[in-house]
Design a protein that fits this description.
3 domains
C-alpha cells in the first residue's frame, strides 16, 4: 500500500486518524476510482459517501469525528457538545455528533449527526491530530443558546472558568458578537461571578442568593491550602479576617439519606463557634435566608459588625431564627498556608 499511495497522502491520513476524503485523494493525482478499488479489495472501508478509512480494524472515536468533518466538506467544524468534549469542557460523550457548517451550504446529515449552520467565517480551532472544531468561547455561547434551563447555563460557564478554559474578556466578546442570544441578561452576572471564583452551580447560587443578596462580606474564594500529604487543596470560601471561618459547599445535588441532612444541620450549628460551615444543595437553593442568617451569626462571633440586608419583604434571614442544637463542632485539622490562614480559634 505504501508504494501505491504517495507519502504526502499517507502523512495526511496519519494526521486524520487514518481517514481520507475523495477530494484529498484526487488532489494528489490519484484516480477517482482508486478508493473504490481499495474498498472492493477489502483493504479500505467506506464510512460515508466520498469518505474512506485506509484501515479495516475498529473505528476509533477520533476517526469517526474526522469522517464526519470530511463528509460535510469545506468550512465544517465540530461544535456544541462534541466540541465541548474535545475542549475538556464536558466529561461526557454525547451520543450524537454535532457539526456546524456555513450558512447557505446544504448537507444531508448521516445517522447520528446533527448539523447546525452559522454565518461565522473565521478560522476553526484545530490542534494537531484533532478535527477542526469551534473555539472554546464560541462553543460556550453555542451551548448557552441551546440551553433550556438557567442552571445548565450556570454549570457550563462556571465549569469553563473552574477548569481555566475561558477568559472573561474573550467570553464577553463572543457573547456580544451574537445578534440573538438566549439568557443574555443573565449571562452578564454569571460570567462575573464565575470569573471571580464561582466554579459550580452551587457556588454560584451561594454567592448570589446567600452572600450578596443578604449583604454578607466578600470571602476569599478557592483559598489555597496544603494537605497533610503535601499536595495543594482549595477551600470553597474563606474569611481569614474573621477567625479563618471556612464555608464548604457540597456539590452533590441530592442526598437520599435524610440523616446526612440532620447531621449537617447539627454540625453547622455547632460550628458557629467552631471553624467550618458545610452546606448542600437544599441549604442554598431552598433555605438561602436561613443559611445567610447562620453565616452572619458565625461571622459576628468572629468580629463582623455588619448588618444583614433582607433579600425580600419576608426574608427569613432578618425576621426568622436559626435553631441551635447541641453537637460537636466541625473543625479544620488541615492548616491553610500562604496569605489565607485558616485557624480553629475564635477571637
Amino acid at each position: 500500500m505504501g508504494s501505491e499511495i504517495p507519502r504526502q497522502l499517507l502523512d495526511l491520513a496519519h494526521r486524520q486518524a487514518g481517514v481520507l476524503s475523495r477530494e484529498q485523494i484526487i488532489a494528489v493525482g490519484l484516480s477517482r476510482n482508486m478508493a473504490t478499488t481499495k474498498v472492493r479489495g477489502g483493504r479500505w472501508r467506506r464510512i460515508y459517501p466520498g469518505v474512506y478509512a485506509i484501515f479495516t480494524g475498529p473505528m476509533t472515536r477520533n476517526a469517526r469525528l474526522w469522517a464526519v468533518v470530511l463528509y460535510a466538506g469545506p468550512g465544517a467544524r465540530l461544535s456544541h457538545e462534541t466540541a465541548a468534549e474535545l475542549l475538556r469542557l464536558s466529561d461526557e460523550r454525547c451520543p450524537l455528533v454535532h457539526l456546524t457548517i456555513p450558512v447557505g451550504r446544504k448537507v444531508s446529515p448521516p445517522p447520528g449527526v446533527v448539523i447546525h449552520r452559522s454565518s461565522y467565517t473565521g478560522p476553526a480551532w484545530q490542534p494537531v491530530g484533532l478535527p477542526p472544531h469551534t473555539f472554546i468561547e464560541e462553543t460556550i455561547i453555542d451551548l448557552v443558546q441551546a440551553a433550556t434551563r438557567l442552571d445548565d447555563v450556570i454549570a457550563l460557564v462556571t465549569t469553563a472558568f473552574g477548569r481555566k478554559l475561558a477568559s472573561e474578556p474573550h467570553l464577553r466578546r463572543a457573547a456580544a458578537e451574537r445578534k440573538k442570544l438566549r439568557w443574555r441578561d443573565e449571562l452578564d452576572e454569571i460570567i462575573s461571578l464565575a470569573a471571580s471564583g464561582a466554579h459550580s452551580v452551587l457556588e454560584y447560587r451561594h454567592d448570589r442568593d446567600v452572600q450578596r443578596a443578604h449583604g454578607l462580606p466578600e470571602p476569599v474564594k478557592q483559598a489555597k491550602f496544603r494537605k497533610p500529604d503535601g499536595k495543594s487543596g482549595y477551600r470553597d470560601r474563606c474569611y481569614p479576617q474573621y477567625g479563618g471561618l471556612v464555608i464548604e459547599l457540597d456539590g452533590k445535588r441530592f442526598h437520599p439519606d435524610e440523616q446526612r441532612g440532620r447531621d449537617r444541620v447539627r454540625d453547622n450549628q455547632a460550628a458557629v463557634t467552631g471553624s467550618t460551615l458545610r452546606y448542600g444543595w437544599s441549604d442554598i437553593t431552598r433555605k438561602a435566608c436561613e443559611t445567610a442568617r447562620q453565616e452572619a451569626d458565625a461571622l459576628r462571633h468572629r468580629g463582623w459588625t455588619g448588618t444583614l440586608i433582607p433579600c425580600s419583604p419576608d426574608c427569613r434571614a432578618v425576621t426568622g431564627s436559626v435553631p441551635v442544637t447541641n453537637s460537636v463542632p466541625v473543625t479544620n485539622s488541615v492548616p491553610v498556608t500562604g496569605s489565607v490562614p485558616v485557624t480553629n480559634s475564635v477571637p
